[in-house]
## 1
Amino acid sequence: MTARRSVLIVGESLAGTTAARHLRALGHTGPLTIIGAEEHGAYSRPPLSKAVLKDPAADHNLGLALDGLDAEAIRSPAVTADTRGRTVTTADGRQVDYDALIVATGADARRLAAPGQRGELVLRTLDDARLLRARMADAGSAIVLGAGFLGMEVASACAARGIPVTVVDTDQPLERILGGHLSAVITARAAEYGIRFVQATGFATLTGDPVRGVALPDGTELTADLVVTCAGEVPCVDWLAGTGLADRLGVGIDHACATSVPGVFAAGDVTYLRGDGTLPDRRAPFWSNAVTQGRTAAASVLGLPSPGPPTDDYFWTEVAGLTLKIVGRLPLLGAATTVQGSVTDGRALLTWGHADGTSTVVAYGLRKPVGALRALAAPSSPPAP
């Protein structure tokens, strides 16, 4: 692709802004347009549950500025795409042409409310976080549906404010991600922190209109002043209807972040990595992948080699006052291969070895530099043939 051809990025997200910056860094001097759906512009989402719920001052430290990019920003959601005509139409009626398109529209929070049922709270956007923070100020009790990273972070923010909080899920907290051993330790720590856990035998449903509680499959009903759904995400692909780019998993990409349509690339939470016959299709909606895929998509648009794999297995969370940093494949299965320190004491370095010579490393309550964790996770010797 020549440097003067136009690039359109749909999604003023971490993946989208990373792609824009990398395009310019790689020498693209042609027209660059970014379509965003939120009036706030681009901002970082991980601090929403880790900082914004706790401190209003954090609102002002989230921005992903477009300064120096010489890019046109259109803040009106994309509503349709014509990949043959190479145009995207926005909600305010603008039709934007492109030579190359990067899809980076991210995902929306998965909602559990019945049609017409009001008052469901989720946490995906800055507005969501501000509303939830305001509601927490007056709440005497809370229920969180979902015991993954986000659910446990929201529950931790409630407990830190002294709000009695109950987390509901079909599996123990973080068990699907971190395995039974770490899950048990984290569950015990969360209980000491003021977080109660209820394990449901199936899907819970929201009750009340507006929502005031949840009904469990066994007939138990829990009520609270605050009910927050943290049940995963849904890729933002409605605007791609009829293009053949998206399915229920999102937009499929290869290792170059190319889609099934020539001239269209994708990055971030809207994507899944297509299987290759040996590995299945894989969704990995984490901020580290958004950054990696943004860079890869930018290079691919310009016909340059990929800077590396389109995934970066780095994760971090804060639960019940404890920081966890993880480098390597998830989920974790079985016991750790090595343990330095003490999980019980809240400071440990744990390693799970894999057959290919790589490892997954968890810094449990340790403020270990990410670079050091990556070095520990790297292959110590060539994998066996």
Note: The longest helix spans residues 175-193.
## 2
Amino acid sequence: MQNDQAQFIKMTETPIHKLITSLAIPTIISMLVTAIYNMADTFFVAKLGTSASGAVGIVFSLMAIIQAIGFTLGMGSGSLISRLLGAKQNEKANEIASSGFFTAILFGILLAIFGLINIDNMMKVLGSSQSILPFAKSYAKYILLGAPIMCASFVLNNILRSEGRSRFAMIGIASGSIINIFLDPVLIFGLNMGISGAAIATLVSQAISFCILLSIILRGVTVSKLNIKYMSKSIKTYTLIIKTGLPSFTRQGLASISTVLLNLCAVGYGDAAVAALSIFSKIFMFIFSTVIGFGQGFQPVVGYNYGAKKYDRVKESCFFTLKVGVSIMFICAVVGFIFAPNIIKLFIEDDLEVISIGSRCLRAQCIAMPFIPVCTVCNMTFQMIGKSWTATLLSSTRQGLCFIPILFIGNTLFGLNGIECTQALADFASCVIAIPFAIVFLRNLNLKIKEQKETSQMTLK
């Protein structure tokens, strides 16, 4: 109980800049290490040829589906846990944590069974060409086998982060990713397993991360506990978890759909276009992971303090995170724009067409980078305070409501050049859409802060 109270005091009284930074550093490290491992996969697989590089982009869509399930249940559980602990409803937090965890395992098993039975058709639907298909199948079958533990790991990671214990989450996620980086060359080239070696490395690393995260929680580090006896028997609990996590499902689900559509459009311009877009997406995710990581340090602070009705701290958290996010993305945009060809060459040196396409994609994205944190911070805030429908709408803009129409219009009117600029234009449009929601939210938050001050003054009198 003393530890629980100490954690509550930490989350609701520590100065905002110090608290968010201390929670964000481990999550940024986790995101960067994960992004490096993704790029390492791309780097080593690229040595097997352009078709193999394209296969990584195809299976990335499958991993986005797995992430959609994991993030939905993980962020849904995590958001609720933060607010419940802020309101000191610890037993309810146990119920949410256990329900989310075991449901993730079940959904992962169902996805694995369906995917393995229909692997050929699935790869084709995800945008694989005939030349890429054998590589994509070899990679995807191992990813599907790992679906249950991957889904469950997202829930475990979010339970730790939602309680402000991001350092422990970092240990689990980063350990698996580092092991993956070392396993890639050993399995791909040392044991001559080709692209299957990359997939097995991913499977092994995900299993290790899962075991580490689960052991941390079972040792009693967290306030919320995992036990099958805590699983809710009420359908309302699962509905609430899914509803709260719906923005994450929408974001990840649309990311998967958008990647599939992107691959289907790009495949008409050859394997080089698919490979270039795959490499570009990994590079951009590495850059974007810094903002996401900082935002993940921000999220539990918002959840705790909103649950504790400390609205002034919620407002301060939003502005601090936005300023840091814009600054990070501006610096990365300048560097990325100047050195775009050199960055692409790190992954593939001998295909000038891939380098040219990838460089144009990266430079277009750099122009839009400083606008990205606006929608990201708004989306994270609304999800953590329980405004699920608003968060869902905003999460659907970047890679759905904006991305898909821009992709088809750009491809029709400008061909490959239109495809290359799609994500950048979608990011700018999503920022414009998010601003009115942010203004309304801040007005309402200011009213609550004003009411609290007036009530406090009346009490003193």
Note: The chain has 18 helices and no strands.
## 3
Amino acid sequence: MSNPWLALTLGDDPTEHISQVGRAHERFLTGEQAVTQVRPVVADSWRRSAGALVSPDGTAPIDLSDGELEAYRAAHPLARVLPIFRDLLGGLADDGGHLMAVCDAHGRLLWVEGAAGVLRGAESMNFVPGARWDEAHAGTNAPGTALAVDHPLQIFATEHFTRGVQRWTCAAAPIHDPATGRLLGAIDVTGGDHLANPHSLALVRATALAAEAYLSANLPEPVTGTATVSVSGREEAILSVSGRRLRLGRRHSELLVLLLVHPEGRTGDQLGFDLYAGDLNPVTVRAELSRLRRILGPELLDSRPYRLRGNIEADFLTVTRLLERGRVADALEAYAGPLLPSSDAPGIVRLRRLIDSRLRAAVLTGGDPRLILAFLSAPWGADDLEMWEAYATALPPGSPARPLAMNRVAQLAAEYGLTLAGRTARSLRATSVQRPRI
């Protein structure tokens, strides 16, 4: 059985293969759905590239440049293994026909090295440090597609999605953080058609493994202190721990929040009910928890029951603590927005509504026009009719802001199909109309 990650199999004619794949590429661009004579990994990549609206005649955009690029790659974990890349692949890069490239997990090229003449040729297609070579920006290519499928592979000539890259052939392998399993980036060798052989793919894979082995044997000392979670007003949680800043996916963000509000721990079934309610799938929950544990590490996440370890601060917990202490102004300042606003997980929805209603009630009850205005000035409070009524009532009669507030009250009441006939500033204090939801 042929290796699906290799561009050519034994006995293939490279010239004929280039022509066949090139014709399939042109048919695909004209709308033909069935992609024949093309490896499935390549056909799938073409579909993703087309879905991302990558132009077959476009070039990769520059994402980082100058000082910003220097600072970013100096702090990147792959900077520590750059000597390994140069030692194992430098011979290829120095022979005048190849380039060695290293990219981050987003496909941004960090280093591109090789002979001056080959580098000049690569510049014409923006294969330069700082350029974005993930599939969504540069189409099918070895480093970008290796990141997308998380596997070493080759991309040969006309298998590239953009025409300007089709005179090149490349082999790339992804690299992972041995401590967390997260994707760090990829190592790539780019050159001529002769790279389409098993040796180039084996070489980049061995180089990636050597880099991971070095990182595993030289893990940085853990940074003691408190981990922090930022999740208010965000679709995905940001976890800062031991010098790392991790962005979690939606389900992992939901799980992290649910574990934070239950420090005593939760069973898989309890977490599954909070995530899926009646659609509980224990296998799915366990799989998500297993992946989250690989990301966080056993030092942060225990199992049986699942619970977080160590000191972990979260922005939404800060808000609730401040409200419990009666520090409404500080709570409002700390509130960055609704908790995971797009999440429909039942446990998250309940928690989000609880925090929002407690903060809103505290501001309304206090009657401080400065705090009410701060609430109304935020995107989540701008259309709150009851809050505008409270603001209009709290302002002194001679305040120049009061007519504006009354006008906004009338405007919102009309939008909600309500009437303010007969209301006075005095009755506004006693009568409230709540908008559907903050």
Note: The two ends are 59 Å apart (CA to CA).
## 4
Amino acid sequence: MRAAMISLLTGLLALSTAPASHAADAAKLALVIGNARYPEFVLNDVANDAQDVTEELKRDGFVVDRQSNLTADAMRQVLDRFYARIERGAVALIFFDRFAIQSNRQTYLLPVDAQIWTEPDVARDGFSLDSILAEMNTRGAAIKIALIDASRRNPFERRFRRYSAGLAPAIAPSNSLVLYSAALGAVAASSKTEHGLFVAELLREMRAPNISAEQALTNTKNGVVAATKREQVPWLSSSLTTEFSFAGSVTQPPDNKIGDPTKPEPQKPEPQKPVCEAPQAEPPPSADDLARDPVIADLSRKIAANANDVASRYKRGQVYAIKRAYALAMQDFDVVIRRNPGDGEALNNRCWTRAATGDLQGALADCNLALQIDPGLSDALDSRGLVNLKLGRTAEAIKDYTDAIQRNPRSSSSLFGRGIATRKSGGDGATDITQAKSMNPDIAKEFAGYGVWECVP
């Protein structure tokens, strides 16, 4: 899973005409920039996102230079240092979090001391993403990756535009991957419940084993789209011709069933024994914690201004449930379902909330109704799997989780739940549990919050 840090053969440089090749052994370099402290704006979440991305890239074998709150001079020096480290055939990645502006059909990343009052100021004080990718290519990077979490309506733009222009398409060299957190020309409002969702989806997919980097970014995009009900649609551009995976090499099918008789048979690992593990669940938030949460405060203001704003109430219920404020979540979901008894998504959310609090029969009724309304709703299958698991109905839980996995193979919750249900029914389950943990290292702690542990009596 951790690739060796050595250079690719120089023959990989002829990417425009060469067939698909492998980059598992390439030197992997990353620059992570999180700009949180602009003079008039302090953004506390940026540092955490940048740190999480840095840690994941290091686990995946990247040599990472993490920087924060860069002025224009500092950003120029950091980029020059990054370019100088790029070897021929390397994988070079840049992650940028916070403000960027489109100008003259280019996207510019903004340092914390940018003075943007007019259109010409953007090119003067910003850093062109097109130029950054071109320089990475010129220095010899075989694969160029840009992950830009900057698709926001930013305060600089309001000074000289009546509308947000979002970000512009990147003019990237061949063998590049570029992912924006929102669609071209669109923005993702920070007051929405999907705040931080882009990075969360990105990290989960980067950890997923045995998929290409392009597929990981496609899954990230799809995950954000599904979670926001298409309110936020990331933009992905790929010209990748070289095989590369964040979490290790993509397994290739064998050329034949016989294999190479000159090579010794690989030894099969010993079956993994069940591990008795009961992690401490996160404590529920206090009333003060909830009162200080800016997303909850924003949604509460919208609901107070318009009691019929069902969308904001549904989103607030989701936030409460995620934060384990289950009683408050139930109140919001109850209102949404009274207004629209056929809302399968709201029924699923109430099912999951009831399952977490121990109201298993009520949860089962909600999940069954949600699946009558939408039989293909994978989230409801996952939720009903949890209900059946807590009821001790392991065969039914395994079936629900398996059906959910068929519809969404990237669900760490369904994989972990099926692994636990398999163990409780007398099987092994280790493969499902291991894969789920590789995708989401906190999944065991999450299930502990539902009262479900790996420890099987």
Note: Residues 1-22, 191-195, 252-259, 268-278 have pLDDT under 50 and may be disordered.
